[in-house]
Amino acid sequence: AETNLIGRVYYLEALGLPRGDARAAENFLKVIQSSIVPDTWEILGGPSTMQLHQTGLGNRPSMIVSTTSDVHQLIREMLAGLRAGSVGADPVVSRK
After folding, report:
1. Residue pair 78/91 in contact by the 8 Å Cβ criterion
2. Which residue ranges in the chain fall short of pLDDT 50?
3. pLDDT for position 10
4. pLDDT for position 73
5. Which long-range contacts (CB under 8 A, 24 or more apart) does 37-44 make?
C-alpha cells in the first residue's frame, strides 16, 4: 500500500492560518508531518511528500500532498476538526 501514492490538493482556508504568512503555513505542514504517521513522510525517509502552494496574499493557500489513501483520510479528518473549531475569517498579513 505504501507504493500506491495518490496526489491531492488541500485548501487551507478556514483553519485560522494568516493568509500570506508562508512561515505559519510551513509550520502547519510540519505539524501534519509530525502528527499523522510521521515515518511515512519523505523528511523521515518515507515515500509521501507534501508541499505548500501559496501564490500571494489574495489567493487560496493550499498544500499538495502525495501519500496513501489511509493517510489522506487522516489529513481530511484533521482539517475537518480544525475547521469545525475555527471561528471567523482567517486573518490577512499586511505587507508594508
Report:
1. no
2. none
3. 92
4. 97
5. 37/70, 37/71, 37/74, 40/2, 40/67, 40/68, 40/71
| Euclidean distance between CA atoms 26 and 1, whole angstroms | 27
Q: Contact, 65 vs 48, CB < 8 A?
A: yes
Strands (E) across the chain are located at: 6-11, 49-53, 62-67
Computed on alpha carbons and rounded to an integer, the radius of gyration of the chain in Å comes to 14
Residue-level pLDDT at 95? 58
**pLDDT value, residue 96:** 55
Q: How far apart are CA 58 and CA 51, in angstroms?
A: 19
CA distance 4 to 22: 30
> CA–CA separation, 46 vs 40, rounded Å?
4
pLDDT at 15: 84
d(CA 83, CA 77): 10
